[in-house]
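Q: What would this chain look like folded?
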Amino acid sequence: MTHHRLIPALPEEISFDFPDGAFARVREILKARRDFDIGSYKDKYMKRRIAIRVRATHAVSVDDYCELLARSDGEQELLLKGLTIHVSQFFRNRPAFEKLREAVFPALFARLRQEGREEVTIWSVGCASGEEPYSLAIILRDSFAEELKKFKVSLVATDIHEGILDVARKGVYGPERLQDIPDGVLDRWFTKVGEKFELAPPIREMVAFRRGDLFDPVSIIESDLILCRNVLIYFERSEQERILNGFALALRTGGVLVLGKAETLVGETRRRFTTLCPVERMYVKNRFSAY
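A: My prediction, written as structure tokens:
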């Protein structure tokens, strides 16, 4: 079959000169077959990631690759995985997690007491293989055991890619994902299984994983704390603003939004939040936050 002939890889410049017609065809296939729309992402980023798969399959041309993609469920899965980057570690960017432990969580539980509420929702967006929400669960277990007895904590983690969510639910990780964990965490919450480490059930059971699309209103979760780190950078500015407005609607008054180090509020969303920690990109939803 011509789609897999061992021919020289396509030139590197295809990453940046991917034909618009072929790009539209890829978008059409992924939308129809996988309910995933690449139109909201930055074109340059998407074309570069698609071109990697074109070269990996040794397709003769981008049109040839589109034919392969249209008929191969396996290639659709591989492309989708390549387009939705899933690189993460436990306690990635440790200072952000320390800020959550030292300031955000204590203030959150204090607000629950003040408001007479018994439930709190934390939403990890673009959770990939689960390291971020599991890191939050570990903090809660280690530092807020008494609060967990008094309040019901719902820790929800979403990602667009169902396959990576299956990996997250298993909770088994290589040592490279555990390099930044605080002292004692490995011994308390992990069991060595061969060359990997399995997360203990009490931590895994705290996190509910589900597929979520940031552009689907059904996926929006009313929350007290939202972490969306290193996700916005892949979207066009207009889509970033749309997502941030969605978070403003999802957050309860006084709720906290945490972005990645390279991300910030854009457009009208700056008026909907007050900066809590500029270094760690943490923002509080304003009391009056009209559209």
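The chain has eleven helices and ten strands.
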